[in-house]
Design goal:
- The chain has 525 residues and is an alpha+beta fold.
- 33% of the residues lie in helices and 21% in strands.
- It has ten helices and 18 strands.
- The strands form four sheets. A five-stranded mixed β-sheet has the order 2-1-10-5-6. Strands 3, 4, 7, 8 and 9 form a five-stranded antiparallel β-sheet that branches.
- Strand 7 (354-359) and strand 8 (362-363) form a beta hairpin.
- It is globular, with a radius of gyration of 29 Å.
- The chain starts with 10 loop residues before the first helix and ends with a strand.
Length: 525
């Protein structure tokens, strides 16, 4: 029999090629959906939308575990997990389609419905058009699976009757793969064009000289001890914890900030250029994430430049509750739909609460909120540090629960007094003799007054404090330990300027931040 004559299709081969058909259909669906998302809105793409919906519905304890386990790679892990699940489902639907073509195609359409639902129910959804990418992609994927599965069909009959066309199927599969790759490339190119305008707008920003510049970092504030965190955290090393699967790239030229709500007598909508024309202040401020475990890495110190939020609010007629104002909560909204609620009294009590436009002498990086974000010293980020901010509403805590509050975190969350040993590292093996134990301590808006170190169950010994920059920044410390051979446990605690000493009692990050003493175990050789 000639090799070009259609042959009956063995079952194992049919299953394998069915799985391949499902994989190609899934690939096509994602590629078409991403092209449509580039035209509609990148955040409406199915992977981003379903991933965002998964984040929104994940229990806080699980989110906290993911942050501890994967750090700033938690979004990448989630996206890879979504793609892995979609791959397995595509393979399964492809196998189903070899026997029931309509059922396999219907399965693809069902996942399109899930993606569309996720897109339109996201907090940042702009309306029904957000459903289009998932819907269009699902139709393309279902049609491709139906067509490829049809080419695998083997009519019942005697061996040798016309059955599957191997060459035709392989050519069709190859054409589908090439077309999908081309469509995906077009989607990335179109999406990249949108991002390029935002990049260009950032590149063109020249930050004005601040009307109130930060004082130089005091001599002696940064200890010259290996292993200690730098006093000012480089922007590229600054922690990032948020729910955005893809970093929003906002064009500063089209960005707007609306200020409205209870007690706002002069509602305003500001442009980025208008914000830059206002008096700017420059301050060193340490930020802390509420997901930071005792001894964790999610704390950093940077030099911020921005507009005093209290001054801007007063221009809009806002008065804090302490002065008779009707609103006790400021709700900041991000372009990605995140809502963060801050106490109005805190942002207007004289502290350097900022609408920041710069970080460490440069416009904000995209990952840290360009073009504008909030920075409020003394409050954990989830109740103060709104990135990519586009809306400020004055309301009350009784009237509205922000994103994290609806997920069992506390409404109010001042930063707790904490300290950390940076060196030696856990399980280090230093030599006997003088060993420098050093690290950082923080109690933003209160300041650090004392740090103490304990070796094993011995007495607390006062550490040497580095010079203080401001009470809104962390403070480095060191202790010259006369190390003796054997295993030892080093423990640190801090006392803030109000006289409160860091508690020994361990508490988890939920609902208002972790507490306890940080310890490391070392072996002295």
């Amino acid at each position: 029999m000639d090799d070009t004559t259609p042959q009956p299709l063995p079952r194992a081969t049919r299953v394998s090629l069915g799985a391949l058909s499902g994989l190609l259909a899934g690939y096509a669906a994602i590629a078409v959906a991403e092209l449509a998302a580039a035209a509609v809105r990148p955040q409406a793409g199915p992977v981003v939308a379903v991933g965002g919906a998964a984040i929104d519905r994940t229990p806080p304890a699980v989110k906290d575990w993911a942050i501890r386990r994967f750090g700033t790679d938690d979004k990448l892990v989630l996206q890879l997990g979504i793609l892995a699940v979609l791959t397995l489902l595509a393979l399964a639907l492809g196998v189903v389609a070899t026997r029931w073509r309509r059922a396999g195609a219907a399965g693809v359409l069902a996942f399109g419905v899930v993606g569309a639902w996720a897109a339109v129910t996201r907090p940042d959804s702009t309306g029904p058009t957000d459903a289009l990418p998932s819907a269009v992609g699902a139709v393309a994927g279902a049609a491709l699976l139906y067509w490829l599965a049809g080419r695998l069909s083997t009519p019942r009959g005697a061996p040798g009757e016309p059955g599957w066309d191997r060459r035709g199927f392989l050519l069709a599969a190859a054409a589908a793969a090439v077309a999908s790759t081309g469509v995906g490339a077009a989607g990335r190119a179109l999406g990249g064009a949108r991002g390029r305008s935002a990049v260009a707008s950032r590149d063109s920003v020249v930050l004005p000289a601040p009307a109130s510049a930060a004082a130089p970092v005091p001599r002696g504030a940064a200890l010259r001890i290996g292993g200690v965190s730098p006093f000012l955290t480089p922007s590229g090393d600054f922690y990032r914890v948020d729910t955005a699967l893809t970093v929003p790239k906002v064009d500063a030229d089209t960005w707007r900030l609306r200020i409205h709500g209870k007690g706002v007598t002069r509602e305003r909508t500001l442009t980025f250029a208008e914000l830059l024309r206002m008096p700017l202040v420059e301050r060193d401020i340490t930020l802390t994430c509420v997901s930071n475990e005792v001894g964790g890495p999610y704390v950093g110190n940077a030099r911020w430049i921005g507009v005093r939020l209290a001054d801007l609010l007063r221009r809009c007629g806002v008065r804090p509750p302490s002065e008779g104002g009707p609103a006790d909560q400021l709700v900041a909204r991000s372009v990605d739909g995140m809502t963060i609620g801050s106490p109005v009294d805190d942002v207007m009590d004289g502290r350097d609460a900022l609408l920041a436009v710069g970080m460490n002498g440069q416009p904000l990086p995209f990952a840290h909120g360009f073009p504008v974000r909030m920075v409020v010293p003394g409050l954990y980020g989830y109740v103060s540090a709104c990135k990519w901010i586009q809306d400020i509403e004055l309301t009350t805590f009784d009237a509205y629960d922000a994103y994290w509050v609806r997920r069992d975190w506390a409404r109010r969350a001042p930063v707790k007094t904490e300290s950390r040993i940076d060196t030696p590292k856990p399980f280090a093996r230093p030599g006997s003799g003088t060993v420098m134990v050093a690290g950082v301590a923080w109690a933003q808006h209160r300041g650090i007054d004392k740090v103490e170190v304990r070796v094993d169950d011995g007495p607390w010994e006062e550490a040497r404090l580095a010079a203080e920059d401001t009470r809104d920044t962390w403070r480095q410390w060191s202790y010259a330990w006369q190390a003796t051979k054997g295993g030892h446990t080093l423990t640190v605690r801090a006392t803030d300027r109000t006289g409160e000493t860091q508690t020994e009692q361990r508490a988890p990050t939920i609902p208002d931040g972790a507490s306890g003493w940080h310890s490391v175990v070392v072996t002295v050789d």
